[in-house]
Amino acid sequence: MPSFHCRQCGSCCRQPGYVYITENDAKLLAAGLRLDLYDFTDRFCEVLEKRHLVLKQYPDEKCIFLEGTRCAVYETRPAQCRDFPLRWDSKRRSEYCKGKVVP
After folding, report:
1. Which of 32, 44, 81, 96 is deepest in the core (most CB within 10 A)?
2. Domain count, the chain
3. Which residues constitute the domain of residue 27?
4. Cα(12)–Cα(60) distance, rounded to whole angstroms?
5. What are phi and psi of 54, to 5 degrees?
């Protein structure tokens, strides 16, 4: 199975688009931030199309948890973030991502 060598540049966290949050993601993130689930979702999430929980973004669309080039919640980051780019990818990844997929 391939692996990914991330250069931790934070470019993927500055791309437009949503980070979808599962119920498990929300529980892990809330625990990692020492918040109850309601406080976490109230402060850091929004509901998209009345049915999808997503992370809030800054006006320039960068992730709310990006601090410099580092993820402030890396250990409990959402599955969508953990799975990039091995389980899902984008057509533009080669334009912004300097990491390498290693067979």
Report:
1. 44
2. 1
3. 3-102
4. 13
5. -135, 155
